[in-house]
Design brief:
This protein is globular. The protein folds into three domains: 178 residues, Formiminotransferase-cyclodeaminase, Chain B, domain 1 (2-Layer Sandwich); 165 residues, Formiminotransferase, C-terminal subdomain (Alpha-Beta Plaits); 208 residues, Formiminotetrahydrofolate cyclodeaminase monomer, up-and-down helical bundle (Four Helix Bundle (Hemerythrin (Met), subunit A), Up-down Bundle). By secondary structure, it is an alpha+beta fold. A hairpin with a 4-residue loop joins β3 and β4.
Length: 563
């Protein structure tokens, strides 16, 4: 698997678009780096930039971005709502795929060292890359902000990990920077129908893990309560892995909770939103929506959709597209501005159009492409699509049954069936294009040079492996088509009687997909020279074919008995 990481530098400029574009361009110029998002904020005077790639080019892009920000941003005149202490305030590296957080730490350390040495910027390592425990927390490193740097830099306890430990003329201009390796962080703002920063802070203190200092009298301005050692007593907040403050955003004319969700496996976005709604209501304030700063992983939105669907006792077995819509509306992500998932969801931005060449087509175009002179898409892709239609029909019956009046106590059971069916549908849709890609891999292998004995042997091996791949894809289609028939069987037995014919059509589509995939397994095996491997695969295919035919006959007997 290719190693992919994300870098999310936050620069202390959110108003001058020319400067922002120049800083982004410095990173984008590195080959192998893809800028996914640029999210400026006028009130915060801060821009969150997101780019991805393999570790080496991403670190090079990060260095160039920091260097350009140092050139264009003068911290001596900076002001904004967000805490900050440098032109490039933070520069975290985040693992996306093929690399662990611990494996990313050396890259963060090397990047920080280079920034300190070559740019003479004070560098504090934070989160997993931190040099000591107290520096793990970004807030500790940034305490005092830019204005506190003259004293902080000469404090032995806060000597930078790299770069000058003095407030030089250059540092006065650039400030300091925090470089780290961390899990994916979701910067998430919750919108209030209030203009009170004080009340927004009170709600943020209710929610965030650090909570609030216990005070005498007024919870915000009263005298701190001290323990036996003279230290302030704290009241923990409700949610782990959440940092937050309240602020007023003049641009929108409202107060917000500015939350950092540092581990969405511990506290996901929808739980933070839900708790914000509860705490706000207790204080006579209403949450009107929320706002994402930067990008979000797809699963965070899907989990949010499931959370709200369960509350409504609605089926969870609906398409990804519909779930994303439900998440956006339930969280109010379009409260302040339109929310386009194609531009805000990490996986959608990383997706290559070529990987979904067929499934992105409309029905007419797909049929035209199939009918063309090209051998691909062929029977394998069509078999997978037939299977996907069958799974879709079974899922439809489950969803309709989950919503039937009078069956409210059964919605969860039908939802479970719909979730299974939707999973089968998604996998079969993936296999539509995967079948064509497997054919392309054979063509690529056949095009390898064969001029020398070594080249000829390598070409033969490559063709063999590509052919095995082209066999395993329809075998997987055959497996999933058979698995999906369980949904149609359950719906023929238990689902809406008015939709039993749909279950019947679904099982026939699944059988067509299964037998079509079976034929592709057989014909692709014909040219393979690995007899033992081929024998095993063909035996598995025969068993699945027989099961598909038996399942179809069983379900159709049920259907015909009810129509």
């Amino acid at each position: 698997m290719k190693r992919i990481i994300e870098c999310v530098p936050n620069i202390s400029e959110g108003r001058d678009r020319a400067k922002i574009d120049a800083i982004v361009a410095a990173a984008a110029a590195v080959e192998g780096v893809r800028v996914l998002d640029v999210d400026p904020g006028k009130a915060t005077n801060r821009t969150v930039i997101t780019f991805v790639g393999e570790p080496e080019p991403v670190c090079e892009a990060a260095f160039r971005l920091v260097r350009k920000a140092q050139e264009l941003i003068d911290m001596r005149g900076h002001s904004g709502e967000h805490p900050r202490f440098g032109a490039t305030d933070v520069c975290p590296l985040v693992p996306i795929s093929g690399i662990t957080l611990d494996e990313l730490v050396p890259y963060a350390q090397q990047l920080g060292e280079r920034i300190g040495k070559e740019l003479a910027i004070p560098v504090y390592l934070y989160e997993r890359a931190a040099s000591e425990e107290k520096r793990r927390n970004l807030a500790n490193n940034r305490a005092g902000e830019y204005e506190g740097l003259p004293k902080k830099l000469v404090d032995p306890a806060w000597k930078p990990d790299f770069g000058p430990a003095a407030f030089t003329e250059g540092v006065a201009r650039s400030g300091a920077i925090a470089v780290g390796a961390r899990k994916l962080l979701v910067a998430y703002n919750v919108n209030l129908n209030s203009t009170s920063t004080r009340r927004a802070n009170a709600i943020a203190f209710d929610i965030r893990e650090a909570g609030r200092v216990k005070r005498e009298g007024d919870p915000l301005t009263g005298k701190p309560v001290l323990d036996a050692d003279g230290k302030p007593v704290s009241i923990p907040g409700k949610l782990k892995s959440v940092k937050g403050i309240g602020w007023f955003i003049e641009e929108y004319g409202i107060a917000q909770l500015s939350l950092n969700l540092t581990d969405i496996d511990v506290t996901p976005m929808h739980i933070a939103f839900d708790e914000a709604c509860k705490s706000a209501a207790e204080r006579g304030i209403r949450v009107t929506g929320s706002e994402l700063v930067g990008l979000v992983p797809k699963q965070a939105l899907l989990d949010a959709a499931d959370f709200f669907l369960k509350r409504q006792e609605r089926s969870l077995g609906i398409s990804e597209r519909e779930k994303i819509k439900i998440a956006v509306k339930s969280l109010g992500l379009d409260d302040l501005a339109p929310f386009d998932p194609e531009k805000r969801v990490i996986e959608y931005l990383l997706a290559e159009a070529k990987d979904e060449r067929l499934v992105r087509m409309d029905l007419k175009r797909f049929s035209e492409e199939t009918a063309s002179e090209s051998p691909a898409p062929g029977g394998g892709s069509v078999a997978a699509y037939c299977g996907a239609l069958g799974a879709a029909l079974g899922t439809m019956v489950a969803n309709l049954s989950a919503h039937k009046r009078g069956w409210d106590d059964r919605w969860s059971a039908f939802s479970d069936w719909a979730v299974k069916g939707e999973g089968h549908r998604q996998e079969l849709i993936r296999l539509v294009d995967e079948d064509t890609r497997s054919f392309d891999r054979i063509m690529t292998a056949m095009g390898l040079p064969k001029d020398t004995p070594e080249q000829a042997a390598a070409r033969k091996d490559a063709i063999r492996e590509a052919t095995k791949g082209a066999i395993l894809v329809p075998l997987r289609t055959l497996e999933v088509c058979v698995e999906s028939m369980d949904v149609m069987k359950a719906m023929a037995e238990q689902g809406l009687k008015a939709s039993v014919s749909d279950a019947g059509v679904g099982v026939m589509c699944a059988r067509t997909g299964a037998l079509g995939a079976y034929l592709n397994v057989r014909i692709n095996c014909a040219g393979l020279d690995d007899e033992a491997w081929k024998k095993d695969v063909l035996a598995r295919a025969e068993v699945l074919k027989a099961k598909a035919e038996a399942m179809e006959a069983e379900v159709m007997a049920m259907v015909l008995g009810k129509v």
